Amino acid sequence: MPSRARRPRRLVYPTIGILLSVALVAGLLALQAWLGHRAPVPWHIADELGRQPLVYAYLLVATLAITTPLAWVVGRKEDLLEALSVTDPLTGLANRRRLLAAFADELNRSVTRFVVRSNGNGHAAPRAMAEAAPYDPTRNADLAPAATN
């Protein structure tokens, strides 16, 4: 679970819902053209939209009204679950999972910086480091075994 900044799911999921709603209308237009034995070119699509504008507008608005709020709720819950999975519920401080993710990110970033700087000087050893597998906290679970007792 990398800690790099990413867009909140409460915004990404509704965006996907909007795109799917538009794609639904476009798919219906393409299906209408195919059943009418016409190529789905822009002037045929404009003609079909002109013949039945209320049907396509209703379909778009209805799917937007359903998918966008539902996607926002699901995305918000996933954001909350992710936040809860990396914080202690009692104190609100970062837990071990967050520590390991941050450690892995910092280690990978340091290796990348080292490789970039060293490759500029013509060293071959950093290339071998770059080809090695990055730090994986699931394989290297204990940072300091004595400290956990």
Helix coverage percent = 55-70%
Note the gap between the termini: 25 Å
**Major sheet attributes:** none
Note the total helix count: 5
Shape: elongated
Element string (H = helix, E = strand):
HHHHH
The chain-level mean pLDDT equals 80
Estimated structural class: mainly alpha
Rg over CA atoms, rounded to whole Å, is 25 Å
Short description:
The chain is mostly helical and 149 residues long. 68% of the residues lie in helices and 0% in strands. The chain has 2 domains: 9-85, no CATH class; 96-143, no CATH class.
Task: Report on this structure.
The chain has 149 residues and is mainly α. The radius of gyration is 25 Å and the shape is elongated. The protein folds into 2 domains: 9-85, no CATH class; 96-143, no CATH class. The two termini are 25 Å apart. α1 (9-35) packs across α2 (42-51), α1 packs antiparallel against α3 and α4 (96-120) runs antiparallel to α5. 6% of the residues are buried. It is built from 5 helices and no strands. 68% of the residues lie in helices and 0% in strands. Mean pLDDT is 80; it is low at 141-149. It has helices at 9-35, 42-51, 53-85, 96-120, 125-131.
What layout of secondary structure does this protein have?
Layout: H1 9-35, H2 42-51, H3 53-85, H4 96-120, H5 125-131
Helix pairs in contact: 1-2, 1-3, 4-5
Short key terms for the protein model shown above:
disordered C terminus; mainly alpha
